[in-house]
Design a protein that fits this description.
Blueprint (H helix, E strand, L loop, with lengths): L6 E8 L2 E8 L10 H15 L17
Antiparallel strand pairs: 1-2
């Protein structure tokens, strides 16, 4: 059985960090090269609006694409 997808995103959190895995079909998503920057921007926005004193995020660092 052949699986077909346009975009698959996996997220694993460990030790206060979030790690992302992204698999995509570049022939189906025209602006795929913009995805890492968009993801980084949205993660930064979430970091700015997180609740003060959220113990689960204490000491966590911002995520940047590899």
């Amino acid at each position: 059985m052949k699986a077909y997808f346009l975009l698959s995103v996996g997220v694993v959190t460990y030790g206060g960090s979030a790690h992302f895995g992204i698999i995509a079909d570049p022939s189906s998503i025209v602006e795929l090269d913009e995805l890492p920057g968009l993801l980084t921007g949205e993660l930064a926005r979430l970091e700015r609006i997180r609740r003060p004193g959220d113990a689960r995020r204490a000491g966590a660092t911002a995520c940047t694409p590899a």
